[in-house]
Design a protein that fits this description.
With 211 residues, this protein is mainly β. It has two domains: 86 residues, no CATH class; 110 residues, no CATH class. Helices cover 0% and strands 65% of the residues. It is built from no helices and 22 strands. The strands form two sheets. An eleven-stranded mixed β-sheet has the order 4-5-1-7-9-12-14-16-21-18-20, with no helix packed on it. Strands 2, 3, 6, 8, 10, 11, 13, 15, 17, 19 and 22 form an eleven-stranded mixed β-sheet that branches. Strand 4 and strand 5 form a beta hairpin. It is globular. The chain starts with a strand and ends with a strand.
C-alpha cells in the first residue's frame, strides 16, 4: 500500500485532491513539449511522479493531477520549480515547495503541514492542522484555521500576513520590519499550549481570533 505520494516538476502545476469513494490513486499528466518525459514508479510504499527533460531547448512542462482515497496515513511531498501547487481536502502530513508560484491548501486535515514559495503567495483555507509552517521569500500569506492548532509559524521577506484562528490564549511573537500589527480575539500568555510566530520583513500582520 502506498503511504507517501511524492510529486515533482521542474515546470508545471500540481493539483492534489481526495475523494471518499476512490478505490485507488488516480494520476493524470498533461505534457507540454515533445521533449518532456515523465516517470511513475512505486518503491517501498512511495509513489513517485517525476518530470524529466530530454533537452532544455523548447517547451518542457508537465501539469500533474492526482486524486487519492480520503484516508489517514497517506503523506504528500510536492515540489515545483516554477508553477502553482494546490491541495484540496487532503488528509495526512503534507509538504509543498515551489521556487516561483503560489501554494494553496483548501480544507486540509493534517497533523503537520510545511509550505514554502521562493516568490509567490501561500494560502491555507479552512484548515484543520496540528502544526503549520509557512514561508515565502516575496509574497503574501493568508491562513484560515477552523480548529485549535498547537503551532503556527509564518514568515515572509516582503508581504502581508493575515491569519484567522479560534479565539483564545497563545504564546505570541509577532514582528514586522516595516508595517502595522493588529490583533483581536487572542490573548498573549507565555504558558499557553498554543504558539503563533509571525514575521515579515516589510508588510502588515493581522491576527484574528474567532469565537
Amino acid at each position: 500500500m502506498v503511504s507517501l505520494v511524492r510529486v515533482g516538476t521542474d515546470s508545471g502545476d500540481i493539483f492534489v485532491t481526495s475523494a471518499p469513494d476512490l478505490p485507488g490513486i488516480e494520476v493524470q499528466a498533461t505534457i507540454h513539449g515533445s521533449r518532456t518525459e515523465i516517470e511513475r514508479r512505486v518503491v517501498d510504499g512511495v509513489l513517485e511522479l517525476e518530470q524529466t527533460c530530454a533537452s532544455w531547448i523548447g517547451v518542457c512542462r508537465v501539469d500533474w493531477f492526482v486524486a487519492v482515497p480520503r484516508r489517514e496515513g497517506l503523506a504528500f511531498e510536492l515540489s515545483a520549480g516554477s508553477g502553482n501547487i494546490e491541495a484540496d481536502e487532503v488528509f495526512g502530513e503534507l509538504s509543498a515547495e515551489v521556487g516561483s508560484g503560489n501554494v494553496t491548501i483548501t480544507e486540509g486535515t493534517s497533523p503537520r503541514v510545511n509550505l514554502a514559495s521562493g516568490s509567490g503567495n501561500v494560502a491555507v483555507r479552512q484548515g484543520n492542522i496540528g502544526r503549520l509552517v509557512g514561508h515565502t521569500g516575496s509574497g503574501n500569506i493568508g491562513v484560515d484555521l477552523v480548529a485549535p492548532t498547537a503551532w503556527v509559524e509564518l514568515d515572509t521577506g516582503s508581504g502581508n500576513v493575515d491569519v484567522g484562528l479560534p479565539a483564545g490564549a497563545y504564546v505570541l511573537d509577532l514582528d514586522t520590519g516595516s508595517g502595522n500589527i493588529s490583533t483581536s480575539g487572542v490573548v498573549s500568555y507565555r504558558n499557553a499550549g498554543q504558539t503563533v510566530l509571525i514575521s515579515t520583513g516589510s508588510g502588515n500582520i493581522d491576527l484574528r481570533g474567532r469565537h
